[in-house]
Design a protein that fits this description.
Jelly Rolls, 434 Repressor (Amino-terminal Domain), six-stranded antiparallel sheet, three-stranded antiparallel sheet
Amino acid sequence: MAEPREIERIVRIRLRSLRNTLGLSLDELAARTHLSPSTISRVETGKRALSLDVLLPLAAGLHVNLDALLDVVGDDDVVIRPTPNNRGERTTWLLSRPMDSTIALKMRLEPTDTPPDRRVHPGHDWFFVIHGRVRLHLGDREITVETGEAAEFSTMTPHSFAALDAPAELVMIFDRDGQRAHTHHEPDHHEPEDHRQRG
């Protein structure tokens, strides 16, 4: 856990950096926060103690959540080490942290004679084809997405996708509904029918 002095140093750097990123002078931020320019300057330079009576108006004036301003946890290990998860003709690697609201996933698709069932779920899907070709079934349409191309579509339209002719690799971005639809592709046959997840 970070020491209090280190937390203060990080918060002061963030305050100054946010102000500069927003292009605000000390006077302009003072007008937003009802603090004096000299008070803000002393806070940024470490000549005034950090306290809620200055942090709350500064966070509001800089359009940042106070919790985010004070958060110093989670920056130690920025590298994600994905491991493969194989489900039939799909292998996936989770590229984001499990608790993130937006999911990034690498997927390898093997060709199949039987296209997967078309599904619907709330939100949008986005994928980029790294290698190979992907056949996207979207409603009544069949769309070929080539290497180097991306597709984005409403997931309330019945959809499925599969490798075309040879294995294909893609990167996908979606929310939790998309994760349930695409990473839990096959039902757990040990569960009753009514409790299986549906995409």
